Amino acid sequence: MSPNLRGALLGLSAFAFFAVHDVVVKSLGSSYAPFQIMFFGVLFSFPLTTVMMMRDTNVGTLKPRHPWWIATRTVAAVITGITAFYAFSVLPLAQTYAILFASPLLITVLSIPILGETVRLRRWLAVIAGLIGVVIVLRPGATEITLGHIAALTAAVGGATASVIVRKIGREERSVVLLLYPMVANFVLMAAFMPFTYRPMPLGDMAAVGVMALLGFVANLCLISAYRAGEAAIIAPMQYSQILWASAFGYVLFGESLDAATAIGAGIIIASGIYIVARESRQSVSDNKPVLRTRTPPETATLPRVSPLLPDSAKPDIGAPEDDARPGN
Description:
- The protein has helices at residues 3-29, 34-53, 67-90, 93-100, 103-115, 121-138, 147-169, 175-197, 203-229, 232-235, 242-254, 260-281.
- The chain is globular, with a radius of gyration of 19 Å.
- The protein has twelve helices and no strands.
- It has one domain (3-307).
- It is mainly alpha-helical.
- It starts with a helix and ends in a 48-residue tail after the last helix.
């Protein structure tokens, strides 16, 4: 088996686990507030995340080198977690994924002010096309824009923000700092909401939260292995397989159907995202390759992120000189 094929299969497995994770979130979301699900999700994720953080061999303290960027990422991650969990609980799975798939488009836009990336005509056209796909999914005027739709859009923006910040400071901050601050902030904030939103959870539902944490842990391990085995340009598009899982799970478990507008819009968004990844994979068309090198599924802040868990040797040096971007990029 070739390294790229092995990486692609591992990537597909990772995103299948993430899809099942989100099915658990949606199932629990019908009975419990997102704050409660996230609180116990973080609680159960701490032991698993500790195992992953033990991979960090860098010497240092928990004091961030870039406190303002860490604070911004932490706020973005917490907001993303709350809004993503809420969106999964109230929207059809496929529709939620279609909106979250806009994150690579937003990463491309945010890379301009945060990374100093130059985005030229072709990638701008891909971004515009992808955003048109989002409008098709939302169908403003034809259907009501609900709080769930706004939450999904907010999650896409927050996840993109958190991911771009990892690209900016990831080589200088310890993995434990990048992982721990959002989780601790989430735990403390969700605990503050618990007196107002807590509902007693039977053992079966508590076990489901534990399974949710385990699924995220296994998915991250698979995704890390995928990026170590194959090329990022091969692995990154595998995330779009989640739309297939969402359609299947939504139909079988929740009686959801994939309507034409969501299918068309999702297709446009996915095509735009794949095009951006393909452009960034070419030599000398992008200084930082922000989407290709982000290597992360949508942020939830209850699970460890993939990018900080990759060893420094696997992370491209943002500060390394590269050839100038080609005209027309």
